[in-house]
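seq:
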Amino acid sequence: MNDRTNTAYAALSDLRSLLADMADTTHPIHRPTGWGPTVEQVADAGRLHAAERHDALTQLARGLKPLGASPAPGDLTVMQTRRDIDMDVADLEDAVRERVAPQMRGAATTTLRIGTIIKLLPKVGAVDDLMTHVLAEAYRMRAKARWALGDSGEIRKLTARCPYCGAKSLRELADRAVVTCSNTGCRCDDPTCGCHDATATRHHQWHATQWHTITQGAPA
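struct:
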């Protein structure tokens, strides 16, 4: 497997492990700012909770106990994130099978679907645009799962030099799937890029998939 295939394998394997960690939604989680449920998702969760509470109170008013033991409240963000990722993985598996294995039947669970995508990575690696899509989706879903579980993410120093300023100042923000140059004086060749904005503090950034595509082999 080539470097991009290995990177996709690692990201998908991480995602599969994170989804297993999301099975228990009862532990309190402190999350860094950034991602979170949308206003609509919070409203839906609130309506569901209100409906369940109404049913329970109605049963009690009739002298009946709600069936079963009352479960500990689940973390709504974890549950919603898990549902979102389940759907995203299903869409990604469909896209991969359609392009490189149209005769293969879809898997029944999210874990098996990730396994199918991993199994097909050698074929995916031969289709450049599909590999770029798989990498971007794997990075995005892994980052989303990490955030839902309270992982603030890893900042990794890269050994390569920045292709614009030549400094060894590159950092990979794994949770955001971003590579950035920490040199405040670094500017790219595109005057419309945010790194040229004197009113902002944004450094030049690459999406991780773009970095691995266009800057492989940069001098160490």
